[in-house]
Design a protein that fits this description.
By secondary structure, this protein is mostly beta strands. It has no helices and 10 strands. The strands form 2 sheets. The protein has a 6-stranded mixed beta sheet, with no helix packed on it. A 4-stranded antiparallel beta sheet has the order 1-3-8-7, with no helix packed on it. A hairpin with a 6-residue loop joins strand 4 and strand 5.
Length: 118
Amino acid sequence: QVQLVESGGGLVQPGGSLRLSCAASGSIFNINLMGWYRQAPGKERELVATITNSGSWTNYADFVKGRFTISRDNAKNTVYLQMNSLKPEDTAVYYCYVRSRTGTVVPWGQGTQVTVSS
């Protein structure tokens, strides 16, 4: 069974930075797409960014373009999200997303809380 463990969240002031990590463990085969979603209180979960297996193609939501950078380390089955110039509206629980080449999506992990506040 594959498990996702997110880390790196916390409380940061507006304009600050955080780096999130997500490690996938267990019986992992043919991981393809990895990414991040987030869910703010009272809102639906939304896509933040995704990255393909080779890392050659990335996709970002408009609201994070130019501020967030997604990357991955395939040897460690880990995906990262570097978040700069954070805004209060970035406050949310951030969840890792992992999909295999066959289209199987790994169940969500616990997520990591990001709070941007002065």
